[in-house]
Structures are given as C-alpha cells and as structure tokens.
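JOB MANIFEST
job_type = single_chain_structure
chain_count = 1
residues = 418
[input]
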Amino acid sequence: MIIFLNNYPNAEELKDGYYNRIVFIDNLFTDYLRFYINESSSVDSLSLKPVALNAYQINVPINSFACHEFVCQIFSSVQVVTYLHSIYGINSSFKQSLYKKAKYKIWDVHGVVPEELIMLNQQPISVVNEYNNYEHLAMQESDYIICVTKKMQEHLLNKYFKIQQNKKFIQLPILSIASSQDTFVKTERKIPVVIYSGGVQKWQSVNKMLDWVYNNHTKARILFLVSDVEFIKFSYRNLYLQEFPGELLSLLPKDLDSYYKDADYGLILREDCLVNNVAFPTKLIDYISNGIIPIVDTKNIGDFNELGLQVINYHDEINGFLDSQINEMRELNDKILQQIYNIADSAIVDLQQIMANSYVNNDNFMIVLMDKLCNIHNKFSDVVKQLDRVQNELSSIYNSKSWRITKPLRWLLSLLRN
C-alpha cells in the first residue's frame, strides 16, 4: 500500500499547482491501495473516508497524541511505501515518525521551501531553520528523490553533498491537467491576446506584470486567470488609481483549455533567483503546449533556457514580430515540449517500476482493519481524550521551569534509593 503524507485535494485546491501534482501522481497508481494522511485542527476524531478509486483519507486530530500513536502502530505492522509531497508533509513529529518507519520512502521535492520562505520574508529565521531541518531529514531518509528539473537536483546535491550517497534521483517534470500534446492552431488577428495564468505569490512578480499591463493594455487584449481575483483588482487600483483594464477570472484547471487556445502570449515575469532557477512552473508547460509564446523577465527558469525555449523579453514590443517569426518560435517550442514529455514518460516508467518492486498487497486486510479500528477508537473517544489530557499535562510538567530546576534533586534522590 502507499501512504501519502498530505490531504487529498478538493476542487478549490486544484487551482494550485501543488495539488495538480498530487492528483497527477495519484492517477499513476489507481490500481494500488492508497491512504492520504490529513492531520488537521478542524477534525476532533479519527475517521476514514473514500476520496478516489482505491484511495482513502485518514483524518487525524492535530493535537491527539493517542490518535498519532494509533495510526503509527497500524502502519508500522505492515510494509508500506510512503510518498512525501514536499517537506511541508513532515512538519510535525507525527508525520516524521510515519516517514521514518516506512519500508520505502519517496520524496517529491516540488520546490526549495527554505529558500522560498527567505524570499517571502514573512517568517522568522527560526522557522526557516526548522524547514532546513525538515529538508535535511527528507534528504537523509528518502530512498528516491523526485525533482522537477535538473537544476533542482544539482541544488540538492550541492547543499547536501555529505549525504547524497545511495540516493536515486528521478527527473519528473510537472505535467498539469490543462497541458496537452495536441497540435495547436492559432487564429491570426490584429490585436493579440495576452494571458497570465497562475497564483499571486511573491515569486510571480505580480507588480511587474501589472506594470506591463498598464503600459501595454492598449496594444493587446488582457486576460488574467488567477487564484485571487480580488487581490489583482486591489493591487492594480492601488498602483494606478484605475480599474484593471482586462478580464479577470478564477477557474479550475479543467476549464482553462478554451482560454489557452485563444491566447497568443503568456506572462511569466519571474526574477533571476534560486527559487525560480530550479522551478518548473505549471503555467509555462501550459503555455507552450497551447502554442502560447512566453513573455519573460529572465530565461533562467528551471531547465528551459538550456532546452532552448523561445521567448519574448517583457521590454520587447509584442507587435514587433512577424507572423512567420512567431510561428517558427511555436514550432521550436513544440519540439522542446516533446523532449519534456519524453523525460516525463521515462520517469513515470521508472517510478511505476519502483512501486511494483516495493509494493506488498495488504489491500483487503488493511481496509477492513482500518474501518474496524476507527470504529473502536471512536467508541472510546472519551478515554482517548483523557489520555491526551494526561499526555499534555505531562508535557507541560516536563517543559516547566520547576522541573528543570529540580533535576539535580531528582538525580540525588535516585542515588540515595539505589
């Protein structure tokens, strides 16, 4: 069976590239029994619910020591493959314990979280150090490490050169729900359509995109497909004292296709920094798979520059290119897209082979066992709550100043007793 150390995404979460990746990986293993671990403050008792074909989500209260021990004991009794989507999946001692006890461990890196936190500059250095520790743990414990780009693999090898032995790296680019290998057909028009599709995180350089829109909205039809429409409206109004001069929508990935097919250019104005140098933006693969020419600030995004991606610099005049030039750029990008799909296909074969070699069929046993044990656990929820209270009280005592001060006295008493 496979354990994923994250929740199974809902419809709203699928607007985020992180959750797109989770669904993409899940679809590779629909024949296997899979459990998603949802450790949450919004649940007060252990529960099990189906979320997809052969897949179940275990909802675990975040502060319940008894529930944590309960789940750890169940999975430690059988051979499991544990799949970690990003180090955010081991930011609790409970999930770290699950990961360490697994027979086989796969870490899908997603992104360089400590460096992202530094870039956002919203957390104290103590939090950054915590995530560096989580990353070190993942690097040390994992049998297989999945990176979206070669640049990400090189970064990890340089950062953790002392613990890279016996680590198997797999390069698996992000192929989103909206990306396609179909041949694109673009309609020639006098006014081009310029699209932005994605989030509003700091590394997306939102203000730079809005500046481009302000300077070019009379030369193109502007379409923003974003996770937070109100943020874009507010930001543009705050910067330029006028309403956003384009169309703003928030859509699920499955609804993006028609908008992509209508677009000529796509904004991706990420800056030249480590977070972007190792990344594989979902929107970039969506753009080139739909014949959209990227408008960039830097070419140094993931491996795309080395692959020869054809782009337009955001300082260039978008109407300054001949149709023949644009069509040639599309054809070259289509060849790059095929390279990316070949890399992905090879990685998927490797990953499926790893899973086939590691997987032990405990399916029926585990479904029945988990269902029965969850029922038993909930019947005795009062006892569990009492145990949790005792555990919390003991933790408070052990962490108290008086307990630390009286340590020498306890040591002396133990000597006298002996």
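[summary]
The longest strand covers residues 34-40.
Residues 323-358 form the longest helix (36 residues).
exit_status = 0
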